[in-house]
Design goal:
The structure holds 3 protein chains of 3 kinds. Chain B is of the alpha+beta class. In chain B, the strands form 5 sheets. In chain B, strands 1, 2, 8, 9, 10, 11, 17 and 18 form an 8-stranded mixed beta sheet that branches. In chain B, strands 6-5-13-14-15-12-16 form a 7-stranded mixed beta sheet. In chain B, helix 1 runs parallel beside helix 4 and helix 8 packs across helix 9. Chain C has 9 helices and 15 strands. In chain C, strand 2, helix 2 and strand 3 form a beta-alpha-beta unit. The chains are: A alpha/beta, B alpha+beta, C alpha/beta.
Chain lengths: 269, 615, 342
């Protein structure tokens, strides 16, 4: 069986424990001190990348390419961490990675970059990405890239992919009630928006890192400027939801009285 | 388990392996990468991979460059020499120093432990001079302390900027999230480094299929720049020994908050305040103002502070409430928090700077100057000095032997201002062994006589300096109360420090959730502390029996992140996911291993820690 | 006037999913004439359910290949329905089947999409949508110039539209081209999760968070994890609550300490764990630090039991804090709840 061309779409997001506060910028809403916030590769896009590498290792002749749209400096920094994990090639586009940018504009640029990949072969193409990012969190960009590329086999909330004899792809997608829908797709091209999957995070491997860096640094150096904006959106308000409540501190009730009050509260409809 | 199932330890060969990315390695790689990228010079070829350019790798423990560091206000002499066009506006949180003051803070609370001499001095000051908001501004900043031609930086941001420049040349690689467990030592020579094992449980035992033994990276030159508490530095000191008469005796833990100042703050960017006197006379403090209404405020708790109750965090909370500072900080908002150890021994703690196959730079090599209260620029300078030496050797195709490295690196260092000023500082703080007033006088004496005169004697091993609670609180808290507090805290499984400070008269801290927050909130909201799974505990109590007999548990009291807590049966419990790798526990353990200079607490290399690049 | 299309798949038995009736309320909030577009193997029963809900008409794309939730065929059906409706605003429930295609359909129609919508409103004739960004940490209200505008509404954001009596709306069939190139994938089944003591109940009315304090030393100087486990499980059973934990307790479980064995990292709320949705939450023996409390974003009413009157919950993060021993209180609570049932 010829190898797959696995193209992973993913970008960078602020590290999960950072404090986020929206601010107004000339380009639309942004995050306070966004340039200073430590960033990581978007978690579910990361899972997609590791699943891609896992599949590529099993199917000889396969290749993994990460196409990432983000600020070049930040991408370089994140590559220092991600580059140690699994082998891949990088195509970098130098532009904003803010969650407030319009997904449609981003999808247009990404689809364009995918179509320009040298030697792209639709019959071997698997387009991977995260189901939803930790930034825009809409779960729409990958789907629109797939649509632009004319791929009618798309799967989201994927936790598992296995290749059956004959090359058919068995895919598990998350559906309601904590269940998974099982589908079998005849083969590439296909789009998979990954959730967490089942693989553990790959360990840092210096040899993988050194090999990756030979391609990553030139890719970053030639990253084309790729502006994206907020489309036709007018933001009326952007805010962190208020969290402070007027707490009633109860100090001198007996456990019996507290229990009664709690049970009453729990039983309300 | 058969050998086929256990993954083998991989090996790899490079030319230069650096341990740690801090200001010293930044100086080293900036200088080396410029030479490697210089197309007008003959290329420097790799001996490890013939036909390839020189393979230079840097392994940093923290999950990103800029996470494991903190600071700073600096004269930046070496930094400016390397970056003559340095424009502070290009680096977040950087600004030239505009206004510098030294403040002596009086104690409005009345709970600090001041000597009779000091209390008399306080009274005199108030009577004759008056005290503006319980403080007294020195009419001038002593020359040895001033930073007026320098910068206020966030060291995290500065290092991220420098790392970005270095990486962009494409000639060297920096790998964060990659702790180095130890150097590969043969006799007194270093052959490279071994990375930390992954996929192990807390005791370091392989966990099924996830186990990946740390790679052995062979290198002709290992640059040891892992800071004051780095594992490789500690290992080399132990295996190779220290130069005669040299020892690491003086430490401090620095802890700080980075805050957003209120919109109407009168503080200008570039303002630098150095303080001493509060919350305890021994505790030095600082407030530096960055651009965009951001400020760094913090304190240093030194190893010669006799109290076994060394709660830096609580002291920091009292510090920010001092009447001289509180008006600026009252409506501020916490944005970052961090802590680190500072090796204050300086020249006296200098290890062997070079050997066969290795060289040491940065704070771990004793470059920090405690008199001028600076270390970043010194560290950077030593990195530049080593790189210049290394380039010389590479161009002459000479090997990295001890003699050669001494000739090209150590000689440069000895000939530099780092050495000259380090010698002045060598005994500058010895007076503090006798008391704060003596200490301050001694500093002034050393500073003004260029190190020719000093007060006090060489400090003892920090383990021997910690008194008992009963001694420390004699006259303030009766022994019966101390016993009661010990019991109650043991029952609740909490450290003693808060209860003792409360009892000693320190008022409760009025938490506001903005700048006065719980220690865990500071850790998580401010420091964003996290650690990846699959690594062993890096703080290890070697002999649990010795812990059981230890009455002081200073490690618990001083742990910056409450990662070391009272444990069952007397051995403390360690939570590696809270540890910020400050290393204060290492020099606070009062229990020496019999017959050695080492203590029962071992501080090893580990992953994770602070995830803030704003410190 | 504008036309708003409510787009939804039908269930296997042809009825409307509950989330679709909720989205119908949202569609009505968007204003204008509301048309419903249904797709599936059977649509008749769903159309009948819409009687008296104020819907102008129903467009139905009914075909055998639409029995399977699948991108190729579902997207074609949705596009056909949208074109037939000529709607400028398309509202859909965020069911997995709908979310799989909504963005692709928006792209196909030359429109735009916003998801995780929690509210729709019209002010001065312009439609505004409220949606989440950054994993429910930032909320934004926005308008879009482009049309058609597809809006995927989160479940629980709106009440189900009530039927006020009346005839069922007229049903217009819509033809869809479903060629073999759209049917390269086949759904072969559904996997259910493996069972165990089910402690995560997404539909529960109450989230019960057990914090690290449950495993600490009690008044007698000894920890009592067995009793803790008994009380916690007892409450979950008696109240039908869902179990959450803080990170510290999850970690203790991971260390092989003799702690609450029914807890896993999947129970973790906040920090790197989940942000579950429940109308009420009761926190016990948990300090209420910010990174954990961030996971309580969607818990409307909050109470806490903690011996520390200065814990985070007391500082604005909960509605009520009972300064008391959780062991004692939960023992009584369980007794009362059990008595109520019998």
């Amino acid at each position: 069986m010829p190898g797959y061309q696995i193209v992973v779409l993913g970008s960078i997001v602020p590290d999960p424990l950072q404090t986020l506060e929206p601010v107004a910028t000339p380009q639309g809403p942004g995050l306070k001190n966004e340039a200073m916030l430590p960033h990581v590769l978007d978690p579910w896009a990361g899972h997609a990348l590791y699943e891609a590498a896992n599949l590529a290792a099993k199917v000889p002749g396969s290749k993994v390419t990460l196409v990432a749209l983000g600020p070049k400096q930040k991408l370089q920094q994140v590559m220092m961490a991600v580059g140690q994990k699994v082998p891949f090639e990088l195509v970098a586009l130098d532009g904003p990675a803010s969650g407030f940018t319009d997904a449609h504009e981003v999808a247009a640029k990404l689809a364009d970059a995918v179509q320009k990949l040298p030697g792209l072969d639709r019959s071997a193409l698997l387009l991977f990405g995260g189901w939803e990012s930790a930034s825009r969190g809409a779960g729409v960009t990958l789907q629109m890239v797939g649509e632009r590329l004319g791929i009618p086999d798309q799967f989201f909330g994927v936790d598992e992919l296995s290749v059956k004899d004959g090359g058919a792809l068995q895919i598990l997608e998350r559906v309601e009630g904590g269940k998974h829908q099982v589908s079998v797709c005849a083969g590439p091209p296909a789009v998979l928006g990954w959730a967490t999957g089942n693989l553990p995070e790959p360990k840092n491997n210096p040899q993988v890192g050194m090999a990756n860096m030979r391609g990553v640094m030139p890719a970053l150096q030639k990253a084309p400027a790729t502006p994206v904006g907020t489309g036709g959106v007018k933001f009326e308000s952007v805010a962190v939801p208020k969290v402070a409540r007027e707490t009633r501190v109860v100090k001198d009730m007996s456990p019996d009285e507290i229990a009664k009050e709690l049970v009453e509260w729990i039983s309300q409809d | 388990m058969s050998d086929e199932n256990v993954p083998q330890r991989q090996t790899m060969a490079v030319d230069v392996a650096c341990v740690g990315f801090g200001p010293a390695t930044a100086g080293f790689l900036t200088t080396l990468s410029r030479r490697l990228a210089d197309a007008s010079k003959p290329p420097l070829e790799s001996a490890a991979s013939p036909g390839m350019p020189l393979q230079v790798l840097c392994y940093e423990r923290a999950d990103d460059v800029g996470f494991g560091v903190s600071g700073v206000v600096t004269r930046a002499r070496a930094i400016k020499a390397a970056f003559p066009d340095l424009d502070a506006s290009q680096i977040p949180m950087a600004t030239p120093v505009r206004d510098e003051k030294v403040l002596y803070l009086l104690d409005p609370v009345g709970a600090s432990r001041r000597s009779v001499t000091l209390r008399a001095a306080d009274k005199t000051l108030r009577a004759f001079h008056g005290a503006d908001r319980d403080s007294f501004e020195l009419p001038w900043a002593p020359a040895f302390l001033h930073k007026t031609d320098g910068f206020v930086f966030s060291l995290g941001q500065l290092l991220q900027w420098m790392a970005g420049q270095v990486m962009a040349t494409g000639t060297v690689q920096i790998w964060p999230g990659t702790p180095v467990a130890e150097a590969l030592v043969e006799g007194k020579a270093v052959k490279g480094v071994r990375l930390l094992d992954q996929g192990v449980d807390r005791q370091g035992r392989p966990e099924g299929g996830a186990y990946m033994p740390g790679m052995d990276v062979h290198a002709a030159l290992t640059v040891v720049a892992d800071g004051p508490v780095g594992a490789v530095g500690q290992q080399l000191d132990e295996v190779i020994g220290m130069p005669p008469g040299h020892a690491r005796r003086e430490w401090a833990v620095g802890m700080k908050l980075v805050v957003d100042l209120p919109e109407d703050t009168p503080l200008q960017a570039g303002t630098v305040l150095h303080t001493f006197g509060f919350p305890e006379p021994e505790i030095f403090g600082f407030l530096y103002v960055h651009p965009d209404r951001v400020a760094s405020v913090g304190i240093f708790v030194p190893s010669w502070f006799e109290s076994p109750v060394r709660t830096t965090y609580r002291y920091l909370q009292h510090y920010v409430q001092h009447p001289r500072l509180w008006p600026y900080l009252e409506k501020a908002k916490l944005r970052s928090w961090g802590a680190k150890s500072i090796l204050e021994s300086g020249r006296r703690g200098e290890p062997f700077l070079a050997g066969d196959g290795f060289a040491r730079i940065g704070e771990g090599s004793g470059s920090t100057n405690v008199l001028t209260s600076s270390g970043v620029d010194e560290a950077f300078a030593t990195g530049v000095q080593l790189a210049e030496g290394v380039i010389e050797l590479l161009e002459a195709k000479k090997p990295f032997t001890r003699e050669n490295l001494e000739a090209v690196y150590v000689a440069r260092r000895r000939d530099s201002w780092v050495e000259r000023e380090g010698q002045v500082a060598e005994k500058a703080r010895d007076g503090f062994q006798k008391g704060v007033v003596t200490g301050l006088m001694g500093m002034a004496l050393s500073g003004f006589t260029g190190g020719r005169m000093s007060l006090g004697d060489e400090p003892p091993h920090p383990a021997d300096q910690i008194g008992t609670l009963e001694e420390f609180y004699k006259g303030k808290i009766p022994a019966a109360d101390i016993a009661r507090i010990r019991r109650e805290c043991a029952e609740k499984g909490v450290p003693l420090h808060d209860a003792l400070m409360d009892r000693a008269g320190w008022p409760p801290v009025p938490m506001d959730g903005q700048v006065l927050v719980s220690q865990q909130d500071a850790l998580l909201m401010g420091g964003k502390v996290q650690a990846p799974p699959g690594y062993a505990d890096h703080v290890v109590f070697l002999d649990p029996e010795l812990c059981r007999g230890c009455g002081k548990r200073v490690c618990v009291e001083i742990c910056s992140a409450e990662a070391i807590r009272p444990g069952d049966g007397g051995t403390p419990a360690f939570d590696r996911e809270k540890c910020v790798h400050c290393g204060a526990c290492l020099w606070s353990c009062p229990t020496r291993l019999p017959g050695t200079d080492r203590v029962n607490l071992q501080f090893r290399a580990g992953a994770g820690g602070l995830h803030s690049a704003e410190n | 006037m504008d036309t708003t299309l409510l787009l939804s798949p039908t269930e296997a038995d042809g009825t409307l999913p509950r989330a679709a009736l909720e989205a119908l309320s949202a569609a009505k909030a968007a204003g204008g004439t509301v048309i419903v577009g249904l797709f599936g193997a059977k649509t008749g029963p769903a159309a009948a359910q819409l009687a008296g809900t104020g819907v102008a008409k129903v467009l139905a794309a009914e075909a055998a290949p639409l029995a399977q939730p699948r991108y190729g065929t579902d997207a074609a059906a949705c596009a056909a329905l949208a074109r037939a409706a000529g709607a400028t605003v398309i509202v859909a429930p965020a069911l997995s089947r709908m979310a799989r295609v909504a963005a692709g359909v928006a792209q196909r129609l030359g429109g735009r999409i916003d998801t995780h919508v929690s509210a729709l409103s019209t002010e001065g004739g312009a439609l505004s949508a409220t949606r989440w960004y950054y994993k429910q940490r930032i909320e934004a209200k926005l308008q879009r110039a482009e049309r058609p505008w597809v809006l995927l509404v989160d479940p629980g954001a709106y009440p189900a539209a009530a039927a006020a009596g009346g005839a069922a709306p007229a049903v217009e069939p819509v033809a869809v081209e479903l060629g073999p190139e759209l049917q390269r994938s086949q759904v072969t089944g559904v996997h259910a999760p493996t069972s165990g003591e089910q402690t995560i109940r997404p539909d529960a009315k109450l989230l019960f968070v057990a914090g690290a304090g449950w495993t600490k030393k009690q008044a007698d100087g000894k920890p009592n994890p067995e009793k803790a486990g008994e009380l916690i499980l007892g409450f979950l059973r008696a109240a039908g609550a869902s179990l959450g934990t803080s990170k510290s307790l999850t970690d203790q479980a991971g260390e092989g300490q003799k702690v609450l064995e029914f807890m896993t990292h999947l129970n973790q709320v906040g920090q790197t764990g989940s942000t579950p949705r429940h109308p009420r939450g009761l926190s016990t023996c948990c300090h209420g630090e910010e990174p954990h409390v961030v996971g309580w974003r969607f818990i409307r009413e909050r109470r806490a039991i903690n011996l520390d009157a200065n814990c985070g919950w007391a500082r604005g993060k909960a509605d009520v804090v009972y300064v008391a021993d959780a062991f004692a209180v939960m023992e009584k609570v369980n007794a009362l709840l059990t008595a109520k049932k019998t």
